Amino acid sequence: MGETLTIAGWVARTRDLAKIKFIVLRDKTGEIQITVKDLGLYPSDGLGREDVIAVTGKAIQSRIANAGIEFFPEKIEVVNKSKQPLPVDISETSQSELETRLNWRFLDFRAPQTRAIFTIQDRLLSTFRGWLTEKGYIEIQPPCIISSASEGGADLFDLPYFEKKAYLAQSPQLYKQMCAISFEKVFTVTPIWRAEKFNTPTHLNEVRQMDIEQAFADDEIVMKVLESVLVDMLRSVKENCPEELKMLNRDLLVPKLPFRRVTYTEAIEMLQRTGEKINWGDDFTKQQEKMMMELIGEQAFFLKDWPAAQKAFYSMPYDDNPEVVHAFDCIYGGIEISSGTQRIHIPKLLRERISKKGLSPENFENYIEAFAYGAPPHAGWSIGLERLTMMVAGKDNIRECCMFPRDRERLVP
Ligand code: ATP
Ligand code: MN
């Protein structure tokens, strides 16, 4: 017999036989069967799903119980009752609609598949942070309230800010650049907001981005960083989350290094050959991104050398062809998970490119001025955390991979 201990958790389910009752108790480590032989110990008004209980007793090795262990109680304390019935099915075979699950997210977090998704997300994040910290990148804290658009465009949420108007950051762009031209190698994990009225399975209005920015670097250097950290993140999930992957029926393949580089022009031609209606200068639809994965036959690859018109004003143009910029997307599992560029670090060129986009350089003076005092060449990228989680967990809807998604409809919970 082991020693007496107290375990606490939630009632996952109960089973009554004539002279014996079983309680399956769940906590963060999993489930354990509590075998109640002395029915006098059992709460007189019964137990319901998700009641919180604390059980004092002894754990005994068992060949019949799933966990290889059974728990024999000496005392059962009801800590807090749950309302019944539950509004959402949180069992392993849950049939509840995503909408219902999101409405009752706090309960849905107790469903094993949901826990698996967020355990994987946690692993992705901690590997990302650990990898960059170890390589000498400094974690920076950019502001989320900003005074003007960082990327241009109209997809900003605005908010009153005392006597002024402010915006929610659509990207930490300017701030990571300001940090990189002093700290050299920086990273951040930060929320960003996009006011686009999309309603797609791959877009949220509030996103978490994992970004780096690096001085004395061009696009090719940061692409190498991206593929290396991404492969390590995937490897780490594969090694540390086998149970979670199994729960999600996921056979995670870790792509081989280096990822193939396909130019934008090659990709357009490839799609055109299949009869796809797309012209040089167009962006790829999500459907076309998926097609490309099949045509290229790689789970992960880079699309590089984009038309300037498709990328932000700060993207560094090629010397010999300013219509093309040092920009790349990383496509993983047939969807864009990351974009990056070498940035323009020369104020004069930056002003020209801003004007060329039809924007006013005066609105960006503060930004441009940052590069007037010894700014080295620099480059960076951004990975969408929910997008990546979605691909790793094999989910079709990004909302499943965001704890509290914000979309056109949803602001609660
Ligand atoms: P997309 O073309 O997929 O709409 P984007 O090119 O507008 O994305 P970027 O500005 O390149 O997005 O942002 C970097 C990364 O952040 C994207 O590759 C993606 O992983 C993620 N991301 C951007 N916008 C969203 C969004 N609205 N919802 C979810 N993830 C997003
Ligand atoms: Mn992009």
Short description:
The chain is α+β, with helices and mostly antiparallel strands.
Which bin fits the share of residues in helices?
A: 25-40%
Low-confidence stretches: none
How would you sum up the major sheet?
A: 9 strands, mixed
CA gyration radius, whole angstroms: 26 Å
Which terms would index this structure?
single chain, 413 residues, alpha+beta, 9-stranded mixed beta sheet, 5-stranded mixed barrel, 17 strands, elongated, binds adenosine-5'-triphosphate, binds manganese (II) ion
Write the layout of secondary structure elements.
Layout: E1 5-16, E2 21-27, E3 30-36, E4 52-61, E5 69-80, H1 98-103, H2 105-108, H3 112-134, E6 138-139, E7 145-146, E8 158-161, E9 164-168, H4 173-183, E10 185-193, E11 206-215, H5 219-240, H6 242-247, E12 260-263, H7 264-273, H8 286-296, E13 300-307, E14 317-318, E15 321-332, E16 335-342, H9 347-356, H10 365-369, E17 378-384, H11 385-393
Parallel strand pairs: 3-5, 6-10, 12-13
Antiparallel strand pairs: 1-2, 1-4, 2-3, 4-5, 7-9, 8-9, 10-11, 11-17, 13-15, 14-15, 15-16, 16-17
Bound molecules: adenosine-5'-triphosphate and manganese (II) ion.
Manganese (II) ion is lined by residues 329, 336, 339.
Question: What does the model show?
Answer:
It is a single chain. The protein is of the alpha+beta class and 413 residues long. Helix content is 28%, strand content 29%. It is built from 11 helices and 17 strands. The protein has helices spanning 98-103, 105-108, 112-134, 173-183, 219-240, 242-247, 264-273, 286-296, 347-356, 365-369, 385-393; strands at residues 5-16, 21-27, 30-36, 52-61, 69-80, 138-139, 145-146, 158-161, 164-168, 185-193, 206-215, 260-263, 300-307, 317-318, 321-332, 335-342, 378-384. The strands form 3 sheets. Strands 6, 10, 11, 12, 13, 14, 15, 16 and 17 form a 9-stranded mixed sheet that branches. Strand 14 (317-318) and strand 15 form a beta hairpin. The longest helix is centred in the N-terminal third of the chain and has 23 residues, at 112-134. The model has no long low-confidence stretch (mean pLDDT 95). Bound molecules: adenosine-5'-triphosphate and manganese (II) ion. Manganese (II) ion is lined by residues 329, 336, 339.
